[in-house]
Specification:
Number of strands: 19
Strand order of the largest sheet: 5-8-9-10-15-12-11
Helix content: 25-40%
Distance between the termini: 48 Å
Low-confidence stretches: 1-9, 25-30
Number of helices: 6
Order of helices and strands: HEHEHEEEEEEEHEHEEHEEEEEEE
Length: 358
């Protein structure tokens, strides 16, 4: 019996160890990682003016006495249309929708107040950051944020210096906002770069100048904090492969090409596949972009990391008749009121954050 026990003991040990390995493996497999999900978005609100005359800006089109016969009823419908879109953006992944939403083509803080207090999104308690710029059309950029996710630490407007024939011309300032994003310190740049008026090539230096304002300020941040989390968003009036984005910002379209401190542009492949956020002469452009610094790309971090990008283009936001069929359903066709939403589709990023296991 003693001999027999001595022979069998190693076999029993092997069986015991094998059972332990199987149990441990099954336990590890059953522990799925949970994540917090949030959304960072951008939306060009298309000529979001109030109906009050501001003698300091060119808002004559958007007055009751103007060629569009812009009135309170049209304005309130516009507010409700925009709130409808914002109320639904990203809610398939996060019931709160965008935690941070950059916006463009807003006249002033009055329109933002009316927007955030619309019943469709009022319960989110959106706050906003906005500065008036010297843009000749009187439109600016702004940042809406849900204080449940984001706390503002600092902000300022960054002037974009432009000249034409030796004289200064004015465009939208860049909005920079620094804040705490659910534990992460982040920097958000909201942009609306100069248009392609006069042709894409002729106007390209203006957008390069605006991009350089972002780039220089980002460099100053990263000189102090090399791994800073940065978001550059906006209506860039350029596509993901345009020189202002590809060369000045230096944004890469593939994660593996992004070096530490570099920028990633998740819209490059989508643009090359024919997706867009606005259309002109039956050609799609993807002007509404959100780019992120390399620190958002590490999936094994305590903070939020990048997961997905989306263009929000529900069927009700798409023109279904006429020469603009298939385009974003805009508010205006010249001076003809179309009753749509915007001539741009909004975009957003889905960000994840690992939840610590108990």
């Amino acid at each position: 019996m003693l001999i027999m026990f001595a022979v069998c003991l190693p076999v029993m040990k092997q069986i015991f160890l094998l059972l332990c390995l199987i149990i441990n493996g099954l336990t590890a497999f059953s522990q799925k990682q949970d994540y917090k999900v949030t959304v960072i978005g951008f939306y060009n609100l298309e000529n979001f003016y109030d109906t009050i005359d501001n003698p300091e800006v060119d808002d004559q089109e958007f007055l009751p006495s103007g060629p569009k016969n812009y009135n309170t009823a049209i304005y309130m419908t516009k507010v409700d249309r925009l709130a409808t879109v914002i109320s639904e953006m990203g809610t398939d992944v996060s019931p709160d929708g965008p935690a941070i939403l950059g916006v463009a083509e807003i006249e002033n803080d009055t329109v933002l107040n009316d927007l955030v207090n619309n019943p469709r999104i009022k319960k989110r308690n959106y706050h906003f950051v906005h500065y008036d710029s010297r843009d000749l059309r009187g439109v600016d950029v702004g940042l809406l944020y849900n204080p449940k996710y984001f706390t503002v630490l600092d902000s300022r407007k960054l002037f974009v210096p432009l000249e034409e024939d030796g004289h200064p011309i004015y465009t939208r300032d860049v909005l920079w906002v620094k804040g705490i994003f659910d534990g992460d310190t982040i920097h958000v740049f909201v942009n609306h770069w100069p248009s392609r008026r006069g042709g894409e090539e002729r106007s390209a230096p203006r957008r390069a100048a605006a991009a350089m304002v972002d780039k220089k300020f980002m460099d100053s941040i990263q000189a102090i904090t090399p791994d800073a989390k940065i978001v550059v968003m906006g209506d860039l009036n350029d596509d993901p492969i345009s020189p202002s984005v590809k060369k000045v910002i230096g944004a890469k379209g593939k994660i593996e090409d992004v070096k530490p401190g570099g920028m990633y542009n998740p819209w490059v492949d989508m643009y090359k596949k024919g997706y867009g956020t606005l259309a002109y002469q039956d050609a799609w452009g993807l002007f509404d972009q959100i780019m992120i610094s390399s620190s958002w790309l590490d999936k094994n971090q305590a903070g939020y990391f990048y997961y997905q990008q989306h263009i929000f283009n529900k069927e009700y936001m798409v023109e279904n008749i006429g020469k603009y069929k298939g385009y974003p359903m805009r508010t205006w066709d010249g001076n003809l009121y179309r009753g749509g939403y915007s001539d741009h589709f909004p975009t957003y990023l889905v960000m994840l954050k690992a939840v610590k296991q108990p």
